[in-house]
Every structure is written in structure tokens, then in C-alpha cells.
């Protein structure tokens, strides 16, 4: 199972830590006030580290070098974003999320490549969606028969730059909209996936696990070839110079 590091042992941090531990993962929690650890249940077996969550030594004590993901969910926006950047840029943790209280700053944070969640009732659920390892996609909506659902896609970073149509072709989904810099965007004919985007797509309920597996790995050569054909078609239409995706023909 994976190891997770959680900064901030408030209501959201406790919910995230307990949920991860219940799923069989190892968890370390960080808080600068050791009294915060009293909020954890008595049976919590994870590591408790007192200190600042953006301090490198504190993070090492929490096992950040082996962490699958890091969640910064303390009460301070600045502390959360700094800690998230240290986790990603210094320790190369691929799955990082930061909780924010000021939604107007979301665009700035997203430009740094840090997924964010707003401080609302569902922030614990949203944080878990962005850091849990490959698993079934949680449905935001199911149509009446239960055969189709709308859910958020979790894509490997290597899909960045590929046209949304290539993602649809690879996974057998239909992209409904993209959340970019905190705002919903309807995909157009030239819309590509950017790192930090949240992609919402309709998919067959019975294919959710297969879709998760496909998108959690880098795109295969056939997908890159298809993406390059889309790029060439667009360039032919616009008269632009042709370029290709790495790995494509």
C-alpha cells in the first residue's frame, strides 16, 4: 500500500488521515501544535510529527521521500501552498493537493501546478480524489439506468499537451467540461489537456476501472500517433508549422 503525508490535523486533515488508514495505507500527519493530534482517534496508528509542514527536515521525518502523495490542509493558505511546492519541487512527490480559503487565489496556485480545493464541506472528499492511488472514479452524476456516469478523470502528467479528443479515443469517454484555474471551460476544437486541469467526462459505469488504468499510465504509441494526426489536421487548416509529440511518428 501507499504512504501519505498530511499537513494539518484539523477537521479535514483528520477525515483524510482516517479514510486513508481505513483503506490500508500508511499515514503520517504533521501539525505545529501537538495538541492537534488529540483530534485523531485513539486507534490511529500513523506517525505524528510536530513541526512546520514546509520544513524539509519535518517532512523527511514524516516520510515524504517515500510518499505517494502529500496533502496540505492546514488553516493557512500560504503555509499550504509553500508546503505543497516543497513536496513537489524538492521531494518530487507527484500527487499533491493544497487546501485554500480564498478561491480568488486559485488561479495563481493552479499556475504553479498545484491542484487546490476550496475550504467547503466537501473539501476532504475532493482532497482524497486528488491524492488516492489508482482506484474507481467517483461518480458526480449517474443517469437513470445507472449505465453512464459523470466523473473526474485522473491523468498521468505525460498526457499534458494532448488534445482532449485523443484522451476520449484512448479511454472511450466523452469529455463534458474542464475545470481550469478554478473555472469551468467547455472544450472547443483546439482544447488540449494542461497539467492542473480537472477533466470531467461521461463514461460507461462498467468501464471505470479500465479507464483509470489507461489514464494513470503514459499514453501508448497509438494514442500519440492519433494525437499527432489531430495536430497535423489543425496545422493544415491554419497553415502553421508542424510539430510532433514525443514518441509519435
TrEMBL record:
It comes from Kocuria oceani. Keywords: Ion channel, Ion transport, Transport. PANTHER family: POTASSIUM CHANNEL PROTEIN 2-RELATED-RELATED, TRK SYSTEM POTASSIUM UPTAKE PROTEIN TRKA. One of its GO terms (biological process) is monoatomic ion transmembrane transport. Residues 1-119 form the RCK N-terminal domain. Residues 136-217 form the RCK C-terminal domain. The keyword Transport applies. This is Potassium channel family protein.
